[in-house]
Amino acid sequence: MLLMTDTTLNIDDLIQHRRLLMVGGKGGVGKTTTAAAVACRAADAGRKVLLVSTDPAHSLGDAFAQPIGNAITCMTENLYALELDPDEEVERYLDKVSAQMRRFARPDQFRELEKQLRLSRQSPGAQEAALLERLSQIIDDSSQDYDLVVFDTAPTGHTLRLLSLPEVMAAWTNGLLRHNHKAKQLGKVLDHLSPGKDLDSPLQDPNQHANQNLDPRSQQIADTLLARQRLFHRARRQLSDPHTTGFIFVMTPEKLPILETRRAVDSLQESGIPVAGIVINRVLPDNVEGAFFAARLATQQRHLDDISQQFSKLATLQITLQEDDVQGLNAIRKFSGMLSQDM
């Protein structure tokens, strides 16, 4: 099968020169297998790798044929994996929120506070908020312990919301503090929390301390709000840096994956996330025989032509449909060999 593109996606170059690789795609196209293979290939090349999945179905553990869970697990030399559990992350997140709010609330407000936190455990945005904060923390901390972090994640969900969090939090924080007449001293901090300020804004240097001349309680509130927003800002800045991050889309040569990938690529590029290229998975080999496969090959070629036209500016890499399921470390390592440009 021929796909006329100008550039072949160089996975080995990404492995060596990026620190964050996001692997995403429509469900069922092989994104988890591809993410695992990229991580395994990097580990075999000598890089210390953390592979992170946000899939609540625990498909990463299924791919390796061993349990992983919500704790960093060593899979093989240089390769560590983590499956973020949304429910556990919500509990961790709300425990942290409760501890912080108790520092600022009056004792007579504690009962109502706990009631609201119990209700929020079931709110639609609780899991997403918890996962986004954990992902931001992983992005922020990972350079201390790992050479490369590979995320098995949805393309337009968590990543795009993570990019918008600094602005969303700025608006929320402004509303929260402006309604507190005792927090007038925080006007200076609110200015810094607003996006789009001059270069001396602490959002331009998220490690800078900006608040001063505040009373102790206001200082604590400001420190908490600024620390959280700066965490999101640092994560966004890294995700938007093409020298740090690359997003790899995985798709199959079929109509629905093409449509979804087109929308996702457009959304990520509009949001400033660098798209490294596309892995086209499960491509039928030319040597299959029979009328059924002849028809499938013709349909596939039309889809490959469509991919070539729609994604002409992106690097691509084709992977042939495998004879067997890819499951277990040995199978993933074998599959990772398909990621070479020499194949």
Automatic annotation (TrEMBL):
Domain (AAA+ ATPase) ranges: 17-274
Stretches the record annotates as Disordered: 194-217
GO MF entries: ATP binding; ATP hydrolysis activity; ATPase-coupled arsenite transmembrane transporter activity
One Pfam family matching this protein: ArsA_ATPase
SMART domains: AAA (SM00382)
Coiled coil: none
Catalytic function, reaction form: arsenite(in) + ATP + H2O = arsenite(out) + ADP + phosphate + H(+)
Top EC category: translocase
Domain of life: Bacteria
Extent of Polar residues compositional bias: 204-217
EC number(s) given by UniProt: 7.3.2.7
InterPro entries attached to this UniProt entry: AAA+_ATPase (IPR003593), ArsA/GET3_ATPase-like (IPR025723), ATPase_ArsA/GET3 (IPR016300), P-loop_NTPase (IPR027417)
Annotated PANTHER family: ARSENICAL PUMP-DRIVING ATPASE ARSENITE-TRANSLOCATING ATPASE, ATPASE GET3
Family, per entry: Belongs to the arsA ATPase family.
Listed name of the protein: arsenite-transporting ATPase
Organism, scientific name: Alcanivorax nanhaiticus
Source species taxonomy: Bacteria, Pseudomonadati, Pseudomonadota, Gammaproteobacteria, Oceanospirillales
